[in-house]
Amino acid sequence: MERQLAESLLLEAAPLADADGVVETPEKAWGILWEPDSSILVEWDAELPRFVLTADVCPLPVEDRPRFLEMLLAYNYLWNVHGGVRAALDDSRGMVSLMLDVPTEGLSAQLLAAVLSNMRAAVAAWRGVLQSSAGSTPGGAAGVEEMPGISAFGGSGFIRA
Length: 161
Prior knowledge:
The protein has one domain (about 5-150): Yope Regulator, Chain: A, CATH 3.30.1460.10. About 35% of the residues lie in helices and about 25% in strands.
């Protein structure tokens, strides 16, 4: 798939995901925007061809940092439950992010819209877990298997329709 077709697919999918807008970045990526505070950066990888989605969750809470990092690693391990979403840490900003590779072969606008919506839901779930668990007792956070970001997908897979 060429970049122009990928862009057309993304522009068709964004409204289906109830996005408020799409902006092109100076780096030739796209930002999918939901007001007031949700966005997903979509980069195009022409070599594979795929979209690479990245979304900021929130700053990693300083309190009990090892526990949160352990939760994020455990989440990464459950790729077969959430369809390959990766939790990452931009250490220069202290920001937790979620990332997902979306191959474009056979990808429809409807499926891409579902992926964008599910990614947005996973970001919101992780934001809630990290923000509500900050400062709680060490055992106070839910286990990764019980997290809303896991159960929201019902085990059917993140990308699969």
